[in-house]
Design brief:
It contains one helix and two strands. It is of the alpha+beta class. The protein has one domain. It has a two-stranded antiparallel sheet with strand order 1-2. The protein binds zinc ion. The site of zinc ion has 7 residues, from strand 2.
Length: 54
């Protein structure tokens, strides 16, 4: 396997399921008004991450 092809996401929080990721995203949005988080599936690690980018 060529590790250069894997996105660098080791520094990000990874969630096993989309449902769990959305749960955390909602919580963080409540903590920080104006924040809008999106859940996306990462093929690099097979988990879900959160991003504030569109
Ligand atoms: Zn990842």
């Amino acid at each position: 396997m060529n590790y250069h092809s894997i996105p660098d996401c080791s520094h990000k929080k990874a969630y096993e399921t989309e449902a769990r990721a959305k749960q955390v995203a909602r919580h963080q949005e409540q903590q920080r008004p104006g924040l809008s988080l999106r859940v996306y599936y990462c093929e690099g690690c097979g988990s879900h991450h959160l991003t504030s980018q569109p």
